[in-house]
Amino acid sequence: MIGARIQALRQNKGLSLSELADKADVAKSYLSAIERGIQGNPSIQVIEKIASVLDVPVQQLVSGADASEELPLDREWMDLTREVAESGITKEQFREWLEFQRWRLQRDDKNDQGEQS
């Protein structure tokens, strides 16, 4: 699914496979494998690079959701985002923190499920 979305967006932008691979700094063979569904689980870093070049939100590549379907951010989220940006934390540092939190939550969920068995 993600491969088909990437391919369609790439073609809509008028980019060749080679052009997208070069601009996203991803191996052409790897990108081709993603588009053909051979590589069905690309890393979030690769997805972020591709989304950036295609100028679409990561969510659109992952789930197919259009940007217009995204939930609007309320004032508190906007303020929090601004605070993070002003604190000097880079986007990459924040992404790493989010990844860690997701991992921690998944680990905790698995531990909770193991205790319930």
Automatic annotation (TrEMBL):
Keyword terms, alphabetized: DNA-binding
Domain (Sin): residue spans on this chain: 64-102
Domain HTH cro/C1-type: 6-61
CDD domains the record matches: HTH_XRE
Protein's name according to its UniProt entry: Helix-turn-helix domain-containing protein
Organism: Alicyclobacillus dauci
